[in-house]
Q: What sequence folds into this?
């Protein structure tokens, strides 16, 4: 059995892909995403939007909540900025609002950094969540500002839905894996196979001295995560 751990409002594509391929999927929504009202500092950055060359989005949630803020001040079609996204899924979320974006082949924050340095110089405004890893903020200090537009809340009440059976968990960020590690016995964890969206997630887990069966997807798209998981069904 494949287990989806994504928030419900980000799971639609994953569920549709599994239904189309007749793959059994159990949805255990371990977290939910809440919008954060823009602070006065964030509003000042929005009002000075034309001082930025690039608008950067590192997740689907950043697109949803970041665009809501932008729409309250501007017609999105009139913004002349370069829109940068972390990967195809985030890019498609922007496209649904009529916005073309550029994304790196590596589908990572490191890839966005290289894209900015090689092709999109100038100041950047990043839309992200409270759980941001801070990579771009650190590497582009002085030429990048951020607006934290959402928070991820983990839901302990979902933990009892995790059985002690052999299951395949799809993990899109390290905080989700850490939440499971914190709340499940080692005996249960050792029965699971974890398909993770990046090598960074695997490395962080190993740094915590956890001997779990972890396999890294070729890229973090839902399709590739499922394709990797099918190898263990």
A:
């Amino acid at each position: 059995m494949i287990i989806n751990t994504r928030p419900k409002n980000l799971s639609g594509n994953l569920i549709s892909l599994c239904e189309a391929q007749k793959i059994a999927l159990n949805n255990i929504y371990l977290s939910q995403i809440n919008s954060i009202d823009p602070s006065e500092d964030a509003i000042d950055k929005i009002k000075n939007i034309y001082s930025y060359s690039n608008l950067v989005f590192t997740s689907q949630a950043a697109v949803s909540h970041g665009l809501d803020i932008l729409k309250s001040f501007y017609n999105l079609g009139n913004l002349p900025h370069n829109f940068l996204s972390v990967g195809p899924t985030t890019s498609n979320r922007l496209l649904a609002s009529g916005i073309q974006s550029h994304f790196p082949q590596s589908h990572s924050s490191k890839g966005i950094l290289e894209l900015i340095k090689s092709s999109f110089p100038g100041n950047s405004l990043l839309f992200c969540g409270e759980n941001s890893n801070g990579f771009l903020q650190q590497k582009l200090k002085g030429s990048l500002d951020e607006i934290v537009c959402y928070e991820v809340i983990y839901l302990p009440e979902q933990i009892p839905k995790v059985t002690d059976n052999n299951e395949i968990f799809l993990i899109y960020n390290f905080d989700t894996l850490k939440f499971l590690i914190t709340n499940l016995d080692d005996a249960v964890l050792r029965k699971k196979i974890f398909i993770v969206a990046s090598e960074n997630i695997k490395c962080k887990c190993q740094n915590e001295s956890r001997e779990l069966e972890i396999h890294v997807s070729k890229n973090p798209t839902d399709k590739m995560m499922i394709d990797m998981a099918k190898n263990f069904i």
Q: What stands out?
A: The beta strands are 2-4, 25-27, 31-35, 54-57, 82-85, 124-129, 144-154, 167-171, 192-196, 213-216. The chain has a mean pLDDT of 94. The chain has ten helices and ten strands.
